[in-house]
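Dear support,

We are seeing what looks like truncated structure output for some complexes. This example has two components. We would appreciate it if you could run it in full and send us the complete token output so we can diff it against ours.
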Amino acid sequence: MTFVDSIKRSVGRRPRTDTAEPSSDVAPPLAGSARAVAAAPAVTAPAVEIAPTDPLFAYLQAASGVVDAERLELDSPALTELRAAHIRAIVPLVAQGELIGALYLGPRLSDQEYSADDRKLLKTLAAQAAPAIRVAQLVREQAVEIEARERLEQEMRVATLIQQQFLPRELPQLPDWQVAAYYGPARAVGGDFYDFIPLPDGRIGIVVGDVTDKGVPAALIMARTQSVLRGEAPRLLSPAKVLERANEILLPEMPARMFVTCLYMVLEPATGRVEFANAGHNLPYVRTADGVIELRATGMPLGLLAGMDYPEHEAILAPGESVLLYSDGLVEAHGPAGDMFGFPKLRDLMDTERPGSELLDHLLDELHGFVGEGWDQEDDITLVALQRTGGYGLAELTPTVSVDGAIATAADTPAGQVLLQVTLPGEQGNERQAMDLVAEAVAGVGLEPAKLDRLKTAVSEAAMNAIEYGSQSDPSIPIDVEVVVSGGDLIVRISDRGLGGPLGDSEEPDLEKKLAGEQKPRGWGLFLIKHMVDAMEIETHGTGQTLALIVHLEGAGDASHPVQR
Amino acid sequence: MPAIPFSAEVSGGPELATLELHGDVNAAADDALGAAWEAATALGAGVVLLDFSDAAYINSTGIALIVQLLADAGRSGREVRACGLSPHYTEIFQITRLSDYMRIFDDATSATTAAAATPAGGER
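Here is the complete output from our reference environment:
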């Protein structure tokens, strides 16, 4: 229902004001009712609204010509009000069968009844005025709509700018890495997000997430989720613990039927080691020399259920390898025939040698070719690509052993043959696991049994040192074990996270002193290691310390005793 | 090879008590080894034989536990002997000089039949 909200009349005289309460000659519009204004020049007139349920409304809509207010017999509140305001005649304004307003006429100046000519004139006037008024109404409504839309668009532009503030302003500059990111919301704002979070130990957290739904509600949840992750990641470090904590925080705040999928990965740029955990998000793809593999990790989306655990996994990205984190807007995009872009296609596209930014350009080109012209983007699209372009590492990634979620690998590198790379929880007892893994890895090297036994003891002691001191026996703080054959040497590196301070300053164990109570019974570890291998080196790096155990292979078959006395 | 929990069996009498050590001799063996040592000394044995025949793994913490036993033996005038050590662990006992304070025998029979030595100093 539309209204006449500004009609001035020059017919009739000013109604008496002793009983009516006209307040204005311009009545404000009220939704759901018909309104008319009657007013003489410089006089006010009653603004009587006729509700759609009022019988007068239907009567006027069907009436033809002037309606005599005093003779009309209707149980109508509006009619009673009009009569009280001394309205004598009502001229309905009908356009295209719709009552858009009415003219209210008080008594004539002459106090005579409205004549047949008057009525004819008024009918003609109403017939001509109604369409014009309707047009004016439509123009005005459109102007209001345009104004509202412009206001909304302005608000959305501001929302877009605000959301852009949540996204990283610049990509991290990492030596030997190419990093690229793309963010394409389906609407002005989106529920996807990505982030790079510098961590206090020099590593970098990488997040890609996707909130259910799109638009402003999703954007608000996205902002909150990102804020939680940015707060917790530097404090907790472990991807599993970060997601677990984020789930605890977000669960009570999450609106019904909304949740967040999120993959959180921590990269150690110097080594290519990534630790990651997944809250229901798409699995990252890694392009290796042998093809594209998935980094598998599972977990419930954030904000769905309480008490969720997120298993943590680890992998190594070797020079030349790329990893792609992505939201489902890409793989779930539909082509003109209704077919979906899909995971297999994305996986195939990953299997090409392209740096990070070129990879994303390539994927987006393929996407646009797939969806065709005039594509209405269905969902937000987020892509984050990292390619390791240099540094020491694996030339190929071949999972060989899985240890409590860790991936052990074997590969050939320019620096030698890597027989094992494995990460173990910093938990007491895992030194034995490290020992067994190394023994298994060197089985083909040809160490004579005595030398192998010595190496095993050295590895066990080095791993125990790393666990007890470097990790403070905290299972969430891992140790790393690497076995390399290089230049005629077998090198086992045991690395810790450096919580226990520098190695190598302990007092040489002296059994007499120990028996006399002048030294603690313990303290044999480094002493044993030094006697079990041909050389031992202690390397301090940004994230901890590495004990390198070196065994000369030239004498592998030699029974000569390597122990230094 | 997975870790093997430590256990110890005590046998013998006032002259010689034998501790048969099973499993991994590491930090986790502390309580069980201590209890076995107390049981052996409660027998009043002048010689305590540590039988490592079924001990698959000894680490530096296990060495420290043995040092504690040796210290206690020295204070109480007992002799400690060892048997059943693999060549590798025999070597470690030599490197650490534990073998200076405990005679090492190939097997339990030779260890139990050997003549008593000077306590807490062993045969150097």
